[in-house]
Specification:
The chain has ten helices and ten strands. The protein is α/β, with parallel strands linked by helices and about 325 residues long. The structure holds pyridoxal-5'-phosphate.
């Protein structure tokens, strides 16, 4: 017989798939690490489980405890799977910018979901940062995950995602391109890959409305860079501890419109039904094409599944309403 003991054991070992039509104008081999093959349909299963296991190991998370996190959905799903298998309660705090589908999915796997306004400062008591911290303090036997500053987030990618990509490309990867939110994926993968070959270039994909690119280039945290945007999962109005700016070679910004259009193109041209930040990442690869040569192997990581965006970029009326057609 060939089976695993529980759903958590199916996390990781996702496929690397060559992109064909959508990257035809690029003179390099472009491979997508498609993370919706994880059981919670996103890359975040990896770090969610790692954060839980590390918190159990050092006593921050105790038997029968409650896990509290500010999450846009994907981390919540990963935490929910871990909570179910390991017997914890889960409270997810999110913002009203996120897809309704994401909340429904979290509730389907037993999480309590609290929704906060998006357009308030991070230190405002109504923000999802402040609300999640407060709930964690007020709930007995609770553990606040804090994926932004929790080092286990990047460690998960250093231990799993990076080695998988190195092995799958037979050590031939030359460039890694990925959307940046908490920074866990880029920092963990980059650390592992640069230890194997320091010449590998690491590119972060950012949004207009986020502080990352300017901070990386100038060292200035410019509040004028912060404004509301549509792309989900990437870009920030804070500097998470998990973003290791030193290890990143550059950031590239992609517009909301391009991210939405390329999310749809990925589905229609490659059959890869992926999420919004994946369209941004692929458009970012196209914007960076001058950096790649014929012998290069470019890996772009696709964070999550398209099923969470049916009511948004996969919906024609929504696209029209936003002026994206
Ligand atoms: C859809 C999506 N894309 C991209 C990211 C960014 O990944 P990371 O937080 O590892 O930087 C996240 C997570 O925040 C996400 O949920």
């Amino acid at each position: 017989m060939h089976y695993v003991d529980n759903i958590l054991e199916t996390i990781g070992n996702t496929p690397l798939i060559r992109l064909n039509k959508i990257t035809a104008e690029i003179d390099a081999l472009v491979l997508a690490k498609v993370e919706y093959f994880n059981p919670g349909s996103s890359v975040k299963d990896r770090m969610a489980l790692k954060m839980v296991e590390d918190a159990e190991a050092d006593g921050r998370l105790k038997s029968g405890g409650t896990i509290v996190e500010g999450t846009s959905g994907n981390t919540g799903m990963g935490l929910a799977l871990a909570a179910i298998v390991k017997g914890y309660k889960l409270i997810c705090v999110s913002t009203d910018k996120q897809s309704k589908e994401k909340f429904d999915i979290l509730r389907a796997v037993g999480a309590e979901v609290i929704v906060c306004p998006t357009d308030v400062a991070p230190d405002d008591p109504r923000s999802y940062y402040s609300t999640s911290k407060r709930i964690a303090e007020e709930t007995p036997n609770a553990w606040y995950v804090n994926q932004y500053d929790n080092p286990s987030n990047a460690v998960a990618h250093y231990e799993q995602t990076g080695p998988e990509i190195w092995k799958q490309t037979d050590g031939k990867i030359t460039h890694f391109v990925v959307g940046v939110g908490t920074g866990g994926t880029i920092s963990g993968v980059a650390k592992y890959l640069k230890e194997q070959n320091p010449d590998i270039k690491i590119w972060g994909i950012d949004t207009y409305g986020s502080v990352f690119k300017k901070y990386h280039e100038t060292g200035i945290f410019d509040e004028k860079e912060i404004y509301p945007y549509i792309t989900e999962g990437i870009g920030e109005d804070i500097l998470p501890e998990n973003v290791d700016f030193e290890i990143i070679d550059g950031f590239e910004k992609v517009t909301d419109k391009d991210a939405a259009i390329y999310t749809r193109k990925l589905a229609r041209e490659e059959g890869i039904f992926a999420g919004n930040s994946c369209g941004a990442a692929v458009k970012g690869v196209l914007q960076l094409k001058e950096h790649f040569g014929p012998d290069d192997v470019v890996v772009v990581l696709l964070h999550d599944s398209g099923s969470r965006y049916i009511g948004k970029m996969y919906n024609d009326d929504w696209m029209k309403e936003k002026g994206f057609f």
